[in-house]
Amino acid sequence: MEHTHAAGESESSREWRVGQLAELSGVTVRTLRHYDQTGLLRPSGRTSGGHRLYDQQNVTRLYRVLALRRLGFSLAEVGSLLDDPDWDFQAMLTRHALQTTRTIASATRLAAHLRGILDELDSSQSVETDRLFTIMEEMTMLETPIRDTTTLLVYDDLAAAHTYLKETFGLGAGPLELDSEGRAVHGELFAGDHAIWLHPAGDGYRPPARLGAASSIIAITVDDADAHYARAVEHDAEIIQPLVSQSYGLREYGARDLEGHLWYFQSPID
Length: 270
Description:
Layout: E1 15-17, H1 18-25, H2 29-37, E2 45-46, E3 52-55, H3 56-70, H4 75-82, H5 89-123, H6 129-141, E4 150-155, H7 158-169, E5 172-178, E6 184-191, E7 194-200, H8 208-211, E8 217-221, H9 225-234, E9 238-245, E10 250-256, E11 262-268
Parallel strand pairs: 4-7, 8-11
Antiparallel strand pairs: 1-3, 2-3, 5-6, 6-7, 9-10, 10-11
Helix pairs in contact: 3-4, 3-5, 5-6
């Protein structure tokens, strides 16, 4: 979508509402809201109705955030880099270009191997195993287009869930947003760099406790499963699997939260 502006409006004076910026940049409104709440991308102002407004400097900073995320930096690292007066933007662009070049080279090699197999199949219906191993290796070298994931969990009582998950499981505290009537409508927590969003129940959305079963498990790696287990027990968590050392090299336990979501916490066995 192309964004037009009125004649005579300078580039520096242009502003976008959060929805407009989300549509133009391909970033969700929730993500922009999260960037604001964490200080990563503060809007330049607000409308009289309280809606976020973004200016040209915000757009430039948003590009830098997205570029750094594509290079593999965590949100915390992105914030540190952007706030560092000695940070070299040109060096980041150079790294981005180099990474893209390597991806193109890997894809080109893979395409060449596939064409070679097609040529072989013209004269034979079999392909050498070594050729297949080569192709599999090239496939793993290609970058996945998926850069990040966010877990979204549905709760009837977002505020209670937000407090419970922080206190019982020690998840990192994120914002809890309230509507004009004081009801929680969106919550955020963190497990390391991984974001966990809390969504209110409604049409098409039900927590596991109301469905009668859970269809997924949130598995989180912690520094010390024993200490984490002791914390959960101290806070009267509903334990569904006591702490155990598994044959596959993890020490872990399982718990059910106050609305039926299943959680497993684990740490590697030394």
